[in-house]
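The records we work with from here on pair a chain with its fold. A complete example follows; check for yourself that the lines match position by position.
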Amino acid sequence: MTTTTLGTAAVAVAEEPVRRRRRRGLAPGRRLPATRLAGPLVLLALWAAASAAGRLDTGAIPAPWTVLDTGVRLWTDGTLPTDVLTSLERAAYGFAIGLTAGVALALASGLSRTGEALIDGTVQLNRAIPTLGLIPLFILWLGIGETFKIAIIAIVVYIPIYLNTHAALSGIDHRFVELAEVQGLSRIQFVRQIVIPGALPGFFVGLRLGVTGSWLGLVVLEQINATSGLGYMMFQAQNYGQSDVILVGLLIYGVFGLISDSAVRLVERRVLSWRRTLSS
């Protein structure tokens, strides 16, 4: 072996770790524990610091410790537990109906041209209509009780679940379909081995949006002819100028939204653990 060849080999060996380091440096890195709490904790710290320094109008934005005292008082009085349970019940019923409808319609539309012709255009039209604008019509149809509130939440939930699941089904590579046909898979085997794994990533995106949407819709709906619930509590507090009670309700909504989104993310990571993605 010549001196030139040895020199070239030595340079290649020396450059290889550099190339490896550069390739590894493109990824986000290892996942840190509880990183999603960093942003809210920073906001809380800034809020507390501004309140302690007297930079905030306490009538409009009370200090965090004032809001905490109000929350404890409402919980001790028994008002807050009743409102929380009522809101959770409404959100759960609406979310369950919306989830079932969104998945069923997405499967029917994504796996059949006839279903797509009958369903997709109707859902797109529904998506273009502001959901909260349907409230007066649903009150005329279903009355002003609990039924219309659950129906509106179900609509808010099913639309993102349908859109993302349908998009995932439409995005399945046709080569997998051809492979399933060559392997002689039955319809059930095709759905179980090809359709479901291909649709799950989009389904979980829609699920996260649906969970968040259920809480957003609930804020508005509980201010319409309601006698309990977090939205009703906040509406009553607005009439009496109790900004601390309003902030208690908003913080509870935010905590519920963060917990539910984190739960969906956890399930998604477990179910889709076979994937190698940038986030993993």
Q: What stands out?
A: The two ends are 45 Å apart (CA to CA). The mean pLDDT is 84. Residues 187-221 form the longest helix (35 residues). The CA atoms of residues 125 and 258 lie 30 Å apart.
